[in-house]
Design brief:
mainly beta; Glucose Permease (Domain IIA); 8-stranded antiparallel β-sheet
Length: 149
């Protein structure tokens, strides 16, 4: 069983509240979403594992059980071409839960006209494989978002 923890501080809102049908419809996979605090912050690894995909606005960490967790920093933020995002690890790096992966500013994302909401998705999972899903309330980085069996 993998416990997936929040990559950032904010408020859990659940995937249905994400302003993007690919995420709100769980087409990428089940999970939840965080509406982040509006201040410069660090997105941290939600599990121990290897960074298999890394973009300024998104990253995937795969744990030793083969569970891939996507953290997507904001919606349509690929259009910002990396502006305002600072990568602190490299693709292929092994990271530990809570280790900083990307530094970014949700307020700047919002000012650029994009949603700063961050989906946290269990890739290639079924909804039934997740439990204890957080879809409301304030969360801190490192708080449990869901368990994946």
């Amino acid at each position: 069983m993998t416990t997936v923890t929040s990559p950032l501080a904010g408020r859990a809102i659940g995937l249905p509240a994400v302003p993007d049908p690919v995420f709100s419809g769980a087409m990428v996979g089940p999970g939840t979403a965080i509406d982040p605090v509006r201040e410069p912050s660090e997105a941290v690894a939600p599990v121990d594992g290897v960074v298999v995909s890394l973009h300024p606005h998104a990253f995937v960490v795969v744990d030793e059980e083969g569970h891939g967790v996507l953290v997507h920093l904001g919606i349509d933020t690929v259009q910002l071409n990396g502006d305002g995002f600072e990568l602190l690890v490299d693709k292929g790096d092994t990271v530990t839960r809570g280790q900083t992966v990307v530094r970014w500013n949700p307020a700047a994302v919002e000012a650029a006209g994009k949603s700063p909401v961050c989906p946290v998705v269990a890739l290639e999972a079924t909804a039934e494989s997740l439990s204890d899903l957080r879809e409301d309330g304030d969360v801190k980085a490192g708080d449990s978002l869901f368990a994946w069996k």
